[in-house]
Amino acid sequence: MEIYVLVKQVPDPEAIVKVKSDSELEIENKYFTNFFDEIAIEAGLKLREKFGGKVTVLTVDNKKVDALRRGIAMGADDAIQITDPALEGSDQFAIAKALATYLNLKDKPFDLIFAGRQAMDDDAGMVGPAVAELLGIPYVNVITGLEVDDPKKEVKVIREVDGGKEILSCSLPALFTCQKGLNNPRIPQVMNVMKAMKAQIKKVDLAALGLNAEEVGGKAAKIKVQKYLPPPKRPPVKMIKEDFPENVKTLVKLLREEAKII
Ligand SMILES: Cc1cc2nc3c(=O)[nH]c(=O)nc-3n(C[C@H](O)[C@H](O)[C@H](O)COP(=O)(O)OP(=O)(O)OC[C@H]3O[C@@H](n4cnc5c(N)ncnc54)[C@H](O)[C@@H]3O)c2cc1C
Fold first, then answer.
1. Theoretical Cys-Cys bridge with 114: which of 40, 101, 123, 181, CB 3.0 to 4.6 Å?
2. pTM for this structure?
3. Considering only CA atoms, which residue is closest to atom 22 of ligand 1?
4. Quick one: CA torsion of 15, 20, 24, 25, rounded to 10 degrees?
């Protein structure tokens, strides 16, 4: 079974992010593998353990490859970085185009593609479905269960819906975006983390994909960031210095008259 997992490196939730200008964020250099992508990697590894085959982690990124190394440390067989200066300015569609073009190369047959339900920084939840659309294969979003019938090339997946679960089926090849609850991603052993640091990452540029700079990057972006706005400044903390029970009375008064939340 040939399995591909789309992975993205995102800022650590504790990283400090500031609006630098209308079109630029300043992000502290603390990154980790997108939480949902680790679930996607685990889904791929579990299927490989059951049916054999290969798990390849794949990213589009001009700088960061730690998400690929995390995939290798967890147990992926191969890691591919699509990278090219012309990718700068990419929107979700351009990223999906680069990924789908790679997956569509004739020497890359695939049975299953996993992605995260969303990236924890830009949060669009678009790349997985866009890749599937471009490849013309079935996809189901936000799955929490998965059962593959390899000989029949069929898959049953579970989604959480209002009031219960939804069970869907489709044929392979297919793409699924993974949600919390599908599995518990394994924590790589230290030895594997060390090996992954030295593992070879295969680099693929646009020329190898047969794409030109007009088809991806800023020139092909359908969506552009108009402006970043910082969150409104928080009002200063107000300390209530009175003793009980006056402090409770003052608190209730402030919540009612100033904060207007009760
Ligand atoms: C080289 C480069 C230049 C960029 N330039 C700009 C820019 O100028 N302006 C701007 O606003 N944004 C830019 N971006 C950000 C980019 O538009 C988004 O990160 C990207 O479209 C994914 O959107 P998302 O994070 O909302 O992913 P979602 O759609 O929320 O991601 C869902 C899932 O798709 C997969 N996925 C997402 N991104 C990738 C990826 N890169 N590789 C592999 N799998 C992925 C993961 O499985 C992820 O869990 C750039 C990104 C790259 C790589």
1. 40
2. 0.91
3. 92
4. 10
